[in-house]
Write a structure and sequence with these properties.
The complex is a heterodimer of chains A (188) and B (122). Chain A has nine helices and two strands, in the order αααααβααααβ. By secondary structure, chain A is mostly helical. Chain A has two domains: 81 residues, RNA polymerase sigma factor, region 2, helix turn helix motif (Rna Polymerase Sigma Factor, Chain: A), CATH 1.10.1740; 92 residues, Arc Repressor Mutant, subunit A. In chain A, strands 1-2 form a two-stranded antiparallel sheet. The C terminus of chain A is likely disordered. Chain B has a domain of 65 residues. The chains are: A mainly alpha (188), B mainly alpha (122). Chains A and B meet through helix 2, helix 3, strand 1, helix 6 and helix 7 of A and helix 1 and helix 2 of B.
């Protein structure tokens, strides 16, 4: 049964069918909420609240849209209003062309253990600005397209591109600076 | 950057690193969510079923024309008692009878028309 059929099942009164969406999206929802809230307890509350909202407003979901984008938008909005944090620093004066001229002259390869790696990446993401960490999560973790990210965050397309580019560079810099990380860094 | 078909090794590495940091939802979260949804469902008052308006032609007919005949009988009784027998055949009295009949028939006509329109709307 595909997602559209599952949605129809829920709308026709089969509450149990909604558990499919909870199972499928709870981990990613937790990740998004955690990036915004900064702690697991609040993230869990946000995820729970988001799923209940999604269930309540499922009839407003347009079947031609992507369920994940629609749902992540709910998680994003719920988490932002829950924490009352300002997600984005205003960098509207930075043009995309200007950014593209920046030369990132290092390359990373990894030889780190999986357990160490998770911890280090988690630390780096926690140290980054919430908005940057969220963009990287959305873009790389589930391969959301720029357009999907635009729908989720409400930012415009060029803004997402600029912020994502900068976030990617910051992430690389911070990973490289991390002393714990056993990286082979080769300068171009 | 948004062309994911171009597999950039550095991009791929970042993807792997970011994916390794995916949060896991606690095992009881799904249970909590489904329980809250079920509870809200149970507490939400269900919309009251719309009562179907029963269309009873005979009942409407009896109500309207029954009232009409009762009124005519009353008028006839009053006219017979207050005037004489000939008054019942006079144009004045027949005019009143005709008026009552026309009013009742018009009312019956609009009742049926309204019923038809409602049925069409459904």
């Amino acid at each position: 049964m595909n997602e559209k059929e599952q949605i129809q099942q829920v709308l026709s009164g089969n509450t149990f069918a909604f558990s499919y969406f909870v199972e499928t999206y709870q981990d990613m929802a937790m990740t998004i909420a955690y990036r915004i809230c900064g702690n697991r307890q609040n993230a869990e509350d946000v995820v729970q609240d988001s799923f209940v909202k999604a269930y309540r407003y499922l009839h407003t979901f347009r079947s031609d849209a992507k369920f994940s984008s629609w749902f992540y938008r709910i998680v994003y909005n719920t988490a932002v209003s829950y924490t009352k944090t300002k997600m984005w620093v205003n960098d509207s004066d930075i043009e995309l062309t200007e950014i593209q001229e920046e030369n990132v002259d290092y390359n990373i390869e990894t030889q780190i253990l999986a357990t160490e790696r998770t911890e280090i990446v988690q630390n780096v993401l926690n140290q980054m600005q919430k908005g940057d960490a969220l963009l990287l999560t959305l873009y790389y973790m589930e391969d959301n397209s720029i357009k999907d990210i635009v729908k989720i965050t409400g930012l415009n397309e060029s803004n997402v591109k600029v912020k994502l580019f900068r976030a990617r560079n910051r992430f690389k810099e911070m990973i490289l600076k991390s002393n714990e990380l056993k990286l082979i860094v080769s300068t171009k | 950057m948004n062309k994911k078909n171009n597999i950039d090794p550095e991009d791929e590495l970042i993807r792997q690193l970011i994916r390794s940091a995916k949060e896991q939802a606690p095992e009881n979260l799904k249970y909590r969510i489904m329980q809250q949804i079920n509870t809200e469902n149970a507490l939400t008052p269900k919309p009251a079923p719309i009562k179907k308006r029963t269309e009873n032609v005979l009942r409407d007919f009896i109500n309207i024309f029954g009232t009409m005949y009762a009124l005519l009988a009353l008028l006839t009784g009053i006219a017979y008692l207050s005037k004489d027998e000939n008054f019942l055949l006079s144009p004045e009295f027949l005019g009143v009878v005709l008026l009552v009949t026309v009013v009742a028939s018009t009312f019956w006509f609009f009742t049926r028309l309204d019923a038809k329109i409602r049925q069409k709307q459904k």
